[in-house]
Amino acid sequence: MYTIKKIFNNNSVLALDSEKREIVILGCGIAFKKKVNDKVSEDNVEKTFILKQKDASEKFKLLLEDISAEYISLCYDIIEYAKNILDKELNDYIYVTLTDHINYVIEACKQGISKPNILIWEIKKFYPKEFAVGLKAIEFIEDELGYKLHEDEAGNIALHLINAQVNEKSDTVEDVYNITKKINDILNIVKYTYNLELDEKTLNYERFITHLRFFFKRLERKEITESEDNFLLEQVKNKYTDAYECMLKIEKYLGQELSNEEQLYLMLHIQRVTTREK
Known about the structure:
alpha+beta; Transcription Regulation, Sacy, Chain A; PTS-regulatory domain, PRD; 3 domains; 5-stranded antiparallel β-sheet
């Protein structure tokens, strides 16, 4: 049995479980004709939310006061589906950010407003699993609510899922968006420098993308370290002159000089991702 602590609407309440933990519970009509301190049977509960992060929990409770329980339930299903498909732990804030986002999108859809995602193709390329979940999410939305959203929205949902895989609260969807754009810009620098198309199906391409993702996170956190041994760097510069010139263009694009260690690994990845194409 659950004890009601606060009623949001007929279908959602804040309750205490048997261990006196705060828990949000959803169920059709579970709060109908109920009041604070009344009991709710577990048989009537359809979904439960236990958010360990206090800040996320408080914001989620505020959302429940303004957003339909139907939307909350739908987002719960999307997030659970994402966890299973991605096989990754998601930050509690996903329940707040994704629910708020989908509520906004649906309200905008009712008014005939849509916002294009200018990085849709990059998201498809760099985050295919998250994008696939986003496509499934807009299927859920159409099936449950009857609103047909453009695939651009699958990209936006994917960005929220990408962000939720990062533990730091400071990482926002905008951060992921900006990093994705920078990765695409660097890929274009490599393509134009070597005058070739990169094979996106190769392992070297995947490794390069992964390297760039972590590279930008290191830049952001100022975790760049300087190697004391420059011998290998000089050897690579002399052997792979095209990769060196390409690396210099990337430095110019970034507007900062990279450490010797970052220069070395960037050149090696550029050499690998372009050599396979020749």
